[in-house]
Design goal:
mainly alpha; 5 helices; single chain; 150 residues; elongated
């Protein structure tokens, strides 16, 4: 198994966890039920752990691409992944402080909600650029030609 295969297997988990976590945040906002807010918080933590893992495997998967047609799309994807990585870490730290110190200020909650929304946008952009790498540029795709010698 290569780093490219490992990255492809892992990457879908943080995307799903963070998007479902944000949807839970929205439901908690409208229903005012702590259950959904707690679920959103823990999915954010799990999603961030997944982002860290995906970032590391993606770094190994992209090693060796120093020129050629994949360089620019790879750099865009890597830059987006960098923002997603640090954005998710910062938001987890922010939300952890809010959760631990039990801040109930509406402005703090609004900032947390907006940060989570921005994170989901960066996740979507990173995923889109990663999809472009695979489906438009063929990154990580191994061509298997038929063996006519048999």
């Amino acid at each position: 198994m290569t780093a490219t295969h490992l990255h492809a297997m892992i990457i879908h988990f943080p995307i799903a966890l963070l998007i479902v976590g944000f949807l839970s945040e929205i439901i908690g906002l409208f229903t005012k039920k702590d259950f959904f807010k707690t679920v959103a918080f823990y999915l954010l933590i799990l999603g961030t752990l997944g982002v860290i893992t995906a970032y590391l495997t993606g770094s190994y998967a992209g090693e060796g691409i120093e020129d050629g047609p994949l360089l620019e799309p790879m750099n865009l994807h890597e830059q987006a992944a960098f923002f997603t990585l640090w954005g998710s870490i910062i938001i987890v730290l922010f939300k952890s402080a809010v959760f631990y110190f039990k801040f109930h200020n509406p402005w703090v909650k609004l900032i947390g909600f907006l940060l989570y929304m921005l994170l989901v946008i960066t996740v979507a952009r990173t995923g889109y650029l990663g999809g472009q790498l695979v489906f438009s540029h063929g990154a990580g795709v191994e061509l298997a030609l038929p063996d006519f010698n048999n």
